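re: ur question from yesterday

yeah so i grabbed the chain u mentioned. its 349 aa long if i counted rite. heres the sequnce exactly as i have it in my notes:
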Amino acid sequence: MSTTTTSAGTGADERAPHGSPLHKLLSRPELGSVVGAVAVLVFFAFAADGFLRASSLSTVLYASSTIGIMAVPVALLMIGGEFDLSAGVMVTSSALISSMFSYQMTANVWVGVGVSLLVTLAIGAFNGFMLTRTKLPSFIITLGTFLMLTGMNLGFTKLVDGTVSTKTIGDMEGFPAAHAVFASTIGIGGVDFKVTILWWLGLVLLASWILLRTRTGNWIFAVGGNQEAARAVGVPVVRTKIGLYMGVAFGAWISGQHLLFSFDAVQSGEGVGNELIYIIAAVIGGCLITGGYGSAVGSAVGALLFGMVSKGIVFAEWNPDWFKFFLGAMLLLATLLNAWVRKRAEAAK
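ran it thru and got these structure tokens back, copy pasting raw so excuse formatting
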């Protein structure tokens, strides 16, 4: 493992807890979310008939993956001490750019996919640059980006296509291949699984490797723990934060292409409010609002909890109006449990 940069004020590396096996377990950021996930799984196993069927679990995993693809980079950004309120509408922006560029230029859809990737990454770089340049809070910077993207999504779609939705691109060259990459279904043992599950797992593995096995992971924890102390010991704070925002943009690009190639067309008003769901998944997974603490695995478990609750309510045939209540309760309980685990771990040092 590379040399660890310690968080200012603690003198300890959040990535490598020391002590007894019990202490190491209590130090894991995702402990609370794992306990909660097991409890929710057991609860709906009894409350909802068929919840444990393979087809039902496939549905749960798909719902979780659509959140988890974004929750992973959002978690890394939160560990780095920042937020991105534009993440939800950026997904829609990515899909709109890909669709409209391909249709209007009469190009192979892969050209639109490539242009969308470049533009989406540029939006992420813009967020990071403005944050580090102006020193304004990320809440203000990304709220401004959120409002601009919301207006641009609607305005450009109406300007180019004359309606609030894009034209269908299902008959264009390259669409079948792009659909296979971003929106296909894979049959395993007679059960259909969406390819987004593989994208989700791949991002979790990649993010975990970055956090736990690379110098960049050191930098992320350091800037989230104490930015000025990190800069004093040579951590490239500006480059790290811009990279984290571009990571969120990359997740938005993947999610946007899935949205587009699943339905052939995109509604320009989609995505508003989803940024809060991504943040909730990361917080439930153990990320602290103050930064410097969390894990990619925890964000995946938080997304899984979201998927289990959203689909478990359907399988149990309950009124879906209660979903937001359960989501809020999970957020509060997970935050309290994470704070308790954190205090116990620090007391045992």
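noticed a couple things. Residues 1-14 have pLDDT under 50 and may be disordered. also The first helix runs from residue 21 to 27.
anyway ttyl
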